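ingest -> fold -> write
write: protein_1
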Amino acid sequence: MNKIAEQMFKKNTKPIILAIDDDVSSMAIEGLLMGNKYDLVLEFNGLDGIKRAIELHPELILLGVMMPGLDGFEVCRRIQFLPEISEVPIVMVTALVNDDDRMKGLHAGADDFINNPYYSVKLTERLHAILRQAKYRRIAVELAEFLLGMTIQLKA
């Protein structure tokens, strides 16, 4: 079975969500998502989070903004320059509500923001929607690669 078919029919695999945050709110997120259909992995600083993202290739990254060392904006920027994980959707979980901060995050590569404190139903619904979009985007890319390969073979 090719990669496209495997992705389309993969039902028993839980999506991996990587949460990178030094704050205790990660623990609240862990409690919220562990009972769901996700595998949640926690990292408590930016550098370890980037290393873990490369290792795991998660379907989604939840990223705190205010962390010592590398803040969330810098983590986001660095992820965008790593081809193996640059397409992973990033959702920043933050208490910052300033439009300038949101624009800074979007320019750094964030896909969405969730305000902390968050409403648990809203969080799970938004994450589910983002994961669904990411899955379809991956399938579309793999299908395009497959079709390109078939076209090259037919021309040869």
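write: protein_2
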Amino acid sequence: MYYLAFVKNSHKPTTPNFDAIDPRHCINAKFRKLHRLAEQAYQQEIGHFDMKGSMPSILFVVGKRPEISQRELADVLIIDTSTVSRDIKRLSRRGLIRFINCDDRRQKALMLTAEGYRFVEKLAPAWAKAQNRMLALIGELNSKRLSIMLDDLQSSDV
């Protein structure tokens, strides 16, 4: 837990709205810190694969759902399309993902290449180790709570 010292500031104007805020209770900051801690744990296990951010998740989803569109992939992973596009380009340059034509000629679908499947086969045990490590840290109950929170937030108008 971090400590935030509050000091009197005689030069500060009267700011009752600002004074009512305690940054230690910021939910956004807590989510960001949780993300950083989880990312560190995963990177310790999968960092040597040169996979950053959403790249492993993209590979896993594309491998499980061949011919998924970029838009569907973004929706499944709950990430913005620009991030998906950037990471797909990187994965494509590495020969792990390829584009295929869809029924809708305006879109391209995604598939893992043979090299992509070989890569995820090597990546999966390291990812599972990171997953198990995080599960040991937060516990099964908190993992379920996270899933419930995500479901609730996704179904709301946030």
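write: annotation protein_2
The radius of gyration is 21 Å.
Residues 14 and 20 are 12 Å apart (CA to CA).
pipeline exit 0
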